[in-house]
From TrEMBL:
Domain of life, per lineage: Eukaryota
Protein name in UniProt: dipeptidase E
Lineage of source species: Eukaryota, Metazoa, Chordata, Craniata, Vertebrata
Gene: Aada
Gene Ontology MF term list: dipeptidase activity; serine-type peptidase activity
Coiled-coil segments: none
The organism of origin for this protein: Spizella passerina (Chipping sparrow)
Task performed by this protein: Hydrolyzes dipeptides containing N-terminal aspartate residues.
Family annotation (SUPFAM superfamilies): Class I glutamine amidotransferase-like
Length: 245
């Protein structure tokens, strides 16, 4: 089986809590005691220094040293030497463009899928772990050379998934309608809508929903289904699965 280990978090901050506060126990359990240093990739936000300070403070409080890739003179070498990778949230288009610009797509894939180092993403960092960023909620403020992302899993994720609010008068498309529009295109993979407070743990060929809120799964041509924390999503990892085109 695959050596990949992923923790794909819907959001960095949950209402009423601090940065990564709602998932810090999951992070500690995921990284364990073997990992001493985490390589942080802050490309999704413009102020990378401030972002790195926020992440460093959090990870040091959990017992891990944090190196930010933007402080390295050789980003590719930083990935090659990393013990674990964390890509934070922000604008997904800005993030993906920077990954391409710094020639990191292949290097991150190799470290995670072949070498088995832990990969954590939150929000935009979760988006880029999937097949493509086609199901992000973000505005295309810059133009990456492709929408194809890291492909660490063979499906897409919609972080911050929102259910329709029946009390609101807003008449624009719901998140569900937008994902259906995506699936109107041919050969589009499953989309897992992760509500805030939810994350997907991938260990080899096993995927488990964790957190407090739940998720909604969209398969092309089928009605979406509702899933509680603890759900086994391992079938989504099987590239030959009939659910995956």
């Amino acid at each position: 089986g695959s050596p990949r280990r992923l923790l794909l978090i819907s959001n960095s901050t949950l209402h009423g809590g601090g940065y990564l506060g709602h998932c810090q126990q999951h992070i500690q359990s995921f990284l364990g005691q073997k990992v001493k240093r985490v390589l942080f990739i802050p490309y999704a936000l413009h102020d990378r220094d401030a972002y790195a300070r926020t992440a460093r403070e959090k990870f040091e409080s959990l017992g891990y040293r944090l190196d930010s890739i933007h402080e390295s003179c050789d980003p590719v070498e930083a990935v090659r030497k990393s013990e674990a990778i964390f890509i934070g949230g922000g604008n997904t288009f800005r993030l993906l463009k920077a990954l391409y610009d710094n020639c990191l797509i292949h290097e991150i894939r190799k470290r995670v899928l072949e070498d088995g180092i832990p990969y954590m993403g939150s929000s935009a960092g979760t988006n880029v772990a999937t097949v493509s960023i086609s199901t992000t909620n973000d505005m295309p403020i810059v133009y990456p050379p492709s929408l194809q992302a890291l492909g660490l899993v063979p499906f897409n994720i919609n972080p911050h998934y929102l259910d329709p609010d029946i009390k609101r008068t807003h008449m624009g498309e719901t998140r569900e309608e937008r994902i259906h529009q995506y699936h109107e295109e041919p050969n589009t993979p499953p989309v897992l809508g992760l509500r805030e407070g939810t994350m997907l743990l991938v260990e080899g060929d096993k995927a488990t929903l964790q957190g407090v809120t739940g998720a909604r799964l969209f398969l092309r041509g089928k009605k979406p289904t509702e899933h509680e924390p603890g759900t086994d999503f391992s079938f989504l990892l099987t590239e030959g699965n009939p659910l995956n085109p």
